[in-house]
Amino acid sequence: MKRNDVLSAKEKRFCSFYISSGDFREAAALAGFADPVKDGAALLTKDKINLEIDRLYQARTENCRRQARAGYERLAFGNVSDAVRLMFAQDPDAEQLRDLDLFNVAEIKRPKDGALEIKFFDRIKALEKLEAAGTEEKSRVSDFYSALVGSIAENTEEQESGI
């Protein structure tokens, strides 16, 4: 960015709040602008603001993608020993329950007979999601590589033909 394209701290706050809420008036008010309606609308017309919003949105999207992948990995490969421990516990208190890792548990029931039923998330489905995400990522890399090779080939042809 050029020097005049550097965002002020207030503009950066606006961009951050806008990504979170999607409401320019609220974002401008939270960022400290005097007239949130007028200032917020004006900010959205600036290229430097839109570039920062795009950058923050891409970073947020990538972070969500990483979190989803980590969650699927925990479902696919996670330990179920705490859930088994819960099945055999005699009236666990709230503190004992807080210490248990029950991320892989989809449902817990206690039918009339008093036994505890625990249903786990499907590990196979989690593995399928991980595989699909990996295939999609490979496809994006492959598409980028193909575009790069095509661009190099075009530039080489242009140089050879004297264009």
Question: Layout of helices and strands, plus pairs?
Answer:
Layout lengths: L8 H13 L2 H8 L4 H8 L3 H31 L3 H8 L5 H5 L6 E5 L7 E4 L2 H39 L2
Antiparallel strand pairs: 1-2
Helix pairs in contact: 1-2, 1-4, 2-3, 4-7
Describe the 3D structure:
The chain is mainly alpha-helical. It has three domains: 1-77; 78-121, no CATH class; 122-163. It contains seven helices and two strands. Strands 1-2 form a two-stranded antiparallel ribbon. Strand 1 (105-109) and strand 2 form a beta hairpin. The mean pLDDT is 86.
Biggest β-sheet: count, sense, barrel?
A: 2 strands, antiparallel
Order of helices and strands: HHHHHHEEH
The general outline is flat
Number of helices: 7
The count of strands amounts to 2
How much of the sequence is in beta strands? 5-15%
Q: Report how far the terminal alpha carbons are from each other.
A: 31 Å
Give the % helix.
55-70%
Mean pLDDT: 86
Structural class comes to mainly alpha
**Rg, nearest Å:** 26 Å
The overall number of domains is 3
Low-confidence stretches: none
The main sheet orders its strands as: 1-2
